[in-house]
Amino acid sequence: MKITIIGAGPGDPDLITVKGLKHLEEADVVLYADSLVNEELIRKSKPSAEILKTAGMHLEEMVDLMVDRLKNGKKVVRVHTGDPAVYGAIMEQIALLKKKEVDVEIIPGVSSVFASAAAAGAELTIPDLTQTVILTRAEGRTPVPEFEKLKSLAGHHCTIALFLSATLTKKVMRELIDAGWKEDTPIVVVYKATWPDQKIVRTTVAGLDVAMKENGIRKQAMILAGWALDEQIHDKDFRSKLYDKEFTHGFRKGIQS
């Protein structure tokens, strides 16, 4: 027996992968996080498919439903928002499924972090400025490991993408500043990336909390922080070696000045 977990992408129904869409269209049973996944995408399921919303279900209930349908010979898919590998809560499902001798196939999706960067017109890794992106979240009701506190991670002064942190902006500001970040360091907040009501807010470390409150953003927001998000980055001379005319690589000989 096998179920397929599909990354639906950040919101735009066209951002699911071709492979993910194929499995969705073939499924007899579709379970999806109805609080996050676009209903327009779920409507691409075949008319006879059983559609099950999971926002109101607990873990064991979901797993028992999937196993029951599998035992009845149904093709079952579980649709997650974004990419399941990041804050997807899939391991707890897989652990229970494996105990019931059910195999799991995972089809990746477009993460909200990359959809947000695209919406902001940003490259998160800029030569000679930052070559590292940290994906994390601020510590709230759910703790983070001791060595992964935001202040500690921010000490690297690279690009940081903050998931699940829209209600913790004062904490984010404090920890970034305590890590030595300048108050004018650029931040881009993308609310509901790729959805019709997407909103992009440009601010700074010092202005983050006020900007979030002024725009009424309390959930479903990606916070991208660091100098790679500078709105004037295009006016500065940061070039990769890849397209440098003087740089030789396996596909091109450099032209010396």
How would you characterize the overall build of this protein?
The chain has 257 residues and is an alpha/beta fold. The protein has 2 domains: 2-110, 3-Layer(aba) Sandwich (Cobalt-precorrin-4 Transmethylase, domain 1), CATH 3.40.1010; 113-235, Methyltransferase, Cobalt-precorrin-4 Transmethylase, Domain 2. It is 25% helix and 20% strand. The protein has 8 helices and 10 strands. It has helices at residues 18-26, 39-42, 59-71, 91-99, 112-119, 150-154, 169-178, 208-214, and strands at 2-7, 29-32, 50-53, 76-80, 103-107, 133-137, 159-163, 186-191, 199-204, 221-225. The strands form 2 sheets. A 5-stranded parallel β-sheet has the order 3-2-4-1-5, with helices on both faces. The chain has a 5-stranded mixed β-sheet with strand order 6-7-10-8-9, with helices on both faces. The longest helix has 13 residues, at 59-71. The N and C termini lie far apart (63 Å). The mean pLDDT is 93.
